[in-house]
Write a structure and sequence with these properties.
The protein has three domains: about 55 residues, no CATH class; about 140 residues, Response regulator (Rossmann fold); about 170 residues, Rossmann fold (3-Layer(aba) Sandwich), CATH 3.40.50. Helices cover about 50% and strands about 15% of the residues. The chain has 17 helices and twelve strands. The strands form three sheets. Strands 2-1-3-4-5-11-10 form a seven-stranded mixed β-sheet, sandwiched between helices. It has a three-stranded parallel β-sheet with strand order 7-6-8. Strands 9-12 form a two-stranded antiparallel sheet. α1 runs parallel beside α3, α6 packs across α14 and α7 runs parallel beside α8. The longest helix is centred in the middle third of the chain and has 19 residues.
């Protein structure tokens, strides 16, 4: 039958209305627009009979789109929930991810609800409960830890709601899909970046410290894996000595600064390089180096290409950062979410193995890029930030040298 409502169907609805009773909501405008010109008498009876309006909902309900139909009915039912982790560990969640996800959902004309748990696992679960109760038909999460993330994913699965792990894989979870960057490669870039910067400073022998990400974040584990792949040959050869290595709970920058100061003091100030897992932790280490008047003399790494991180690179206090084109990640996740919300079942060619369950999770992994002084301009050219945002008066000359416009 499809979605064509013939006059005899309208007649049937009018005749059956009284016995069928109200079955659900109906859009009067839609019914009028679809009504054929013939059998006008029956159609008029249909339009003025309240019980017939209810009966027609049975017919309209049969017009919902299939996975490829893309009808207005399917779009109107789409509602996507997104839970971001915090706004302190990295500025990107609010300044980039939210912006790009909102733009994609608005363009697609789907309803959405984006909330931030602000680092609170209890709040994370409360937000998820509210979203599931409100009728989202797709849930996208950036977990705070795998335990609380798994509880949310399993609850959604029990209700038949497809889910997407965004940026961080929830170990032991049940996400339908996973969209992220290749985090092992991010770690490799951090490790090779530190080696490059130490070599540029003619430091063939070096004491290095590692400020790792949160131990509850699988990404931090993958970063460490990649970083050690790059650094291990130097360490095994005796060229580099690790004089401090500690994870920072919750990616807490203030805690990271405290931990690095303890490392620095324990090493008697003899620290030649810092592998920091993101720009926030890198800046925390730089603050301690400034306090000891050695900033710019000790290479520091970072990740996320935040405005602060890029400014530190331009100033010479941070040797590099890793740029993850968040728009690509957000576009990938939003495209999946939009398709799922309309009843489609997308297929991804890649997979990542959940190390706790051995499940192969359908995955889209994107490629990160190392950013040094001479290619900061590429981040600006990509639209991730602007020259106005990073080129303060103090950095104007550095921006000119780096070709940032």
């Amino acid at each position: 039958m499809g979605c064509e409502l013939r006059s005899e169907q309208l007649c049937w609805a009018a005749q059956q209305g009284a016995s069928e009773g109200a079955r659900g909501p109906h859009d009067r405008t839609n019914a009028t627009e679809r009504r054929p010109g013939k059998d006008a008498t029956c159609a008029r009876k249909f339009l003025i009979a309240a019980t017939a309006l209810a009966a027609l909902s049975l017919i309209v309900a049969g017009c919902s789109s299939s996975s490829t139909g893309g009808s207005t009915t399917a779009a109107s039912k789409a509602k996507i929930g997104v839970i971001l982790p915090d706004s302190k560990s990295s500025a990107r969640w609010e300044t980039a991810d939210r912006k790009y996800l909102e733009a994609a959902f608005k363009t697609a004309g789907v309803a959405y609800d984006i909330q931030n748990a602000q680092g609170d696992a209890t709040q994370f679960q409360t937000i998820a409960d509210q979203m599931l109760t409100s009728g989202v038909n797709v849930l996208v999460i950036v977990n705070l830890d795998s335990g609380s993330g798994k509880a949310v994913l399993d609850k959604a699965k029990a209700q038949g709601i497809p889910t997407i792990d965004y940026d961080r894989l929830t170990l032991g979870g049940s996400a339908s899909y996973y969209v992220s960057f290749d985090n092992v490669e991010v770690g490799r870039l951090l490790g090779t970046g530190l080696i490059k910067c130490l070599t540029a400073d003619a430091k063939t022998k070096a004491n290095i410290t590692l400020l790792d990400g949160s131990p509850t974040d699988n990404n931090a584990t993958l970063l460490k894996q990649g970083a050690m792949e790059s650094l291990k040959p130097k360490i095994d050869a005796g060229d580099y000595a690790v004089v401090g290595d500690q994870a920072v709970a919750g990616w807490n920058n203030q805690l990271g600064g405290t931990i690095f100061e303890q490392m620095y003091t324990a090493a008697g100030g003899k620290v030649d390089g810092v592998l920091a897992a993101n720009d926030g932790l890198g800046n925390a280490a730089i603050a301690i180096l400034k306090k000891n008047k050695v900033n710019g003399m000790v290479p520091v790494t970072g990740q996320d290409a935040t405005d602060q991180g890029l400014q530190n690179v331009l100033a010479g206090d941070q040797c590099m950062t890793v740029y993850k084109a968040v728009k690509q990640e957000a576009d990938g996740a939003s495209a999946l979410a939009i398709a799922l919300s309309k009843g489609e079942k997308p297929t991804l060619s890649g997979t990542v193995k959940d190390t706790q369950t051995s499940r192969d999770v359908p995955t889209q992994l994107l490629k990160p890029v190392a950013i040094y002084f001479d290619n900061v301009k590429d981040v600006v050219a990509d639209g991730y930030t602007t020259a106005a945002a990073i080129c303060t008066a103090d950095l104007a000359a550095a921006c000119t040298r780096a070709g940032v416009k």
